[in-house]
Amino acid sequence: MISTDSPTHFPAEEVMSMQASCIDSAQLRPGVMDLLESCHERFARDGYCTVPSILAAPDLSSLRQHHESLRLSGRMYFGAVQSKRRWVLHNEEVAQLIQLAIVPIVSIVAGAEVKPSFTYTAIYDEGADPPAQGNPEQREYSVALRLDTDSDAQLDGARPHPLWLATPAGAVPIDQASGDALFYRGRELVRGSTTPPGGRRWASVFLHYVSKDFPGSPL
To answer: Which residues contact 187 (CB under 8 A, 6 or more apart)?
Structure first.
């Protein structure tokens, strides 16, 4: 059902303005491009790699505000089948624009030309489980971008909370702070997460890609 967590609803024009602010300001953190060669090497070896703080700091603040506003707007679905404490939205506009903007980066990390498939935005409350995310054929290469939506977590230096990857070598915890990006092979590695500690909330934006010559249509 549609979220009824809060009676606050943002007018459509206000939500669009927030989206435009996120899009207009989106920039990679200086120095990120220097990390991609080593990230590609690990991706080729292990099937995953991480890039810390991939976006510039002002963009993280803008995106945090955007996702909290999105949660309160009524557009996100709350209490989906897989979890009672999670808001979700498929192919949200800002997520899709970030997805498109980092196609060259994903291509470098993957070592192959890629194209966007679909996105999944999830906001986790305490006790939430990770969402199931569509046809695995449509997520050959995936990026999980972690964002805090709880401003207090930024102020008190809250520790990162891990995503988990089920790899051939066993379960691997991936600590993520706000703004960190995890690149992984979406068809081969199963992703899960721990839940936020009491009173916390965070968002993860999942960006999925396929090879450029993939014959199917985007989800």
So the answer is: 136, 137, 139, 140
Cβ count within 10 A of residue 30: 8
pTM metric for this prediction? 0.79
Question: Helices marked H in 90-197 — which ranges?
Answer: 93-101, 103-110, 151-155
User: For the chain, what is the radius of gyration of the CA atoms?
Assistant: 16
Task: Evaluate whether 204 touches 145 at the Cβ level (below 8 Å).
Answer: yes
pLDDT of 210 reads 96
Of all helices (H) and strands (E), which one includes residue 38? helix 36-46
The mean pLDDT value for 58-75 works out to: 83
Strand order of the sheet with strand 114-125?
Answer: 48-51, 181-184, 141-148, 201-211, 114-125, 86-90, 77-78
Contacts 24+ apart (CB under 8 A), 38-44: 39/109, 39/183, 40/108, 40/109, 40/110, 40/111, 43/109, 43/110, 43/111, 43/183, 43/185, 44/111
- Which pLDDT tens digit goes with each residue over 107-134? 999 999 999 999 999 888 755 555 455 5
